[in-house]
Design a protein that fits this description.
The protein has 93 residues and is an alpha+beta fold. The chain has helices spanning 46-56, 70-73, 75-92, and strands at residues 34-38, 59-63. It has a two-stranded parallel ribbon with strand order 1-2.
Length: 93
């Protein structure tokens, strides 16, 4: 079961986020999935990414310092993760 309040948006008079933001799709994507998250993300808790990876049965790689926008924060790290995934899928073929 997925039980995580994922969004950490400060309330500045804004309406509450819809509940759908707290629940991922029940069924995982049909294609190979790799989740990338950051332990320093101040918008979405990395605990939610961990729960989602367990729920969907996919891999999760956590960045130690980047914020919510991983690609601009550390593009080389993101590329390395994608190349690692590509290499791993070639060895499985």
């Amino acid at each position: 079961m997925f039980n995580c309040r994922c969004l950490s948006v400060p309330n500045h008079g804004a309406e509450k986020q819809p509940e759908s933001f707290d629940r991922p799709p029940a069924n995982p994507p049909k294609s190979l999935t790799l989740l990338l998250a950051s332990r320093a993300d101040r918008l979405v808790s990395s605990r939610c990414s961990s729960q989602l990876a367990r729920l969907w049965g996919c891999d999760l790689v956590e960045h130690p310092w980047a914020g919510h926008d991983l690609p601009p924060d550390d593009p080389d790290w993101v590329l390395a993760q994608l190349l690692n995934l590509q290499a791993a899928t070639k060895t499985l073929s």
